[in-house]
Amino acid sequence: MVHPGTLARSVDALEGPPPPGSPGSRRKIAVVHHVPFAFTNEPKLGSRMEEAFLNTNHAKMYIAINTVAIDSCVVGKSNLYRRSDIERVNGSLKPHSSEGTNIAIPSEHGLPAFGRFLAEDNMIASALWHELGLRHDLSCDVARNVVGNMTLSDYIWRRVRWIRVRKHMVLAATLLEPFTEAVVLSIIASSSLKYLFNTPPWITLILHFSLWLYVDLDIYASLAGHPLPSDIRWEFLAAWAARELLALPIYIFAVFGSQVTWRGNRYQVLRNGEVERVSPSQSNWLRRFMRREPLDNYDLISQTTTD
Predict the structure, then answer these.
(1) Which of 52, 58, 72, 171 lies at a CB distance of 3.0 to 4.6 Å from 239, suitable for a disulfide?
(2) Residues whose CB is less than 8 angstroms from the CB of residue 12 and which lie 6 or more positions away in sequence, other chains included
């Protein structure tokens, strides 16, 4: 869901001239995307944690990375492309030759070429960036997304899945991810100030988390266009605190694995985010213990799903 005029402004950003003050040599825009803003009416803790995550930490890093714009960073909530650009890329991430052709494998081009990826939205954007040398533009609008009925377990496994996918797509950024989280930075800050100035850790922790929460609530208000509603204030804050405390344990668990669950099927994440379907005998012991349905042997995701 978007505000009226969003599509028109997106088309202007895709096709229009560079904004005033931008370099005249600015590269052509291939993707216009939007910051997702989540909301939920579900009482489940997982739904509230997903809402808190998308509207604070995720939005903060998403905007920061796209402002610096040193590489592609796009989620598929709301994207605008040119069909002619999509049909020229194949997911190899290898630049096209000056003649405009690309002989790199695979030879399949367009949307079908991205069926082997789990994060096909980000891979399409990366292909446009690296293969065609085009750039992205983050719209001034937000894309409102409804968070469904999500339990705490659903939330945890969702985060595990995308950390494992990112690990194979952008390893360096994934390894730095804990240093964008409040708990890790609070430990570093309190230890440093204790060593340098003998500041009691509890003072640093109170100041740190108060400032962190203030920034996150400001981000929420910027996206929503209004402060956090009073009727969900305590639920949101509880979910926010739970997300912050669970972020590091989830990350540690996720980063040491490569198997994920997607729509009831089990997959092994390969290089660049490609996936293959996993048989029960190839699942890790924890998943074999928790498995609820039989799976076939290895198959490419593009051959086993149509989602």
Answers:
(1) 52
(2) none
Q: In this structure, what are the phi and psi dihedrals at residue 198, rounded to the nearest 5 degrees?
A: 60, 35
What local confidence, expressed as pLDDT, does residue 108 receive?
86
> For 198, left (φ over 0), alpha (ψ -120 to 50), or beta?
left
Q: Give the residue among 208, 207, 232, 206 at the shortest CA–CA distance from 220.
A: 232
Parallel/antiparallel/unpaired status of strands 135-146 and 259-262: unpaired
| Residue 170 dihedral angles phi and psi, to the nearest 5° | -140, 80
Q: Greater confidence, 20 or 242?
A: 242
Specify whether the CB–CB gap between 173 and 38 falls below 8 A. Answer: no
106: cis peptide before it, omega within 30°? yes
Residue 121 falls in the annotated catalytic set: yes
**What is the predicted pLDDT for the residue at 244?**
97
223-241 pLDDT, tens digit each: 999 999 999 999 999 999 9
With CA atoms as reference, report the closest residue to 155 among 270, 290, 50.
Answer: 50
pTM of the model: 0.85
Catalytic residue among 12, 71, 85, 121: 121
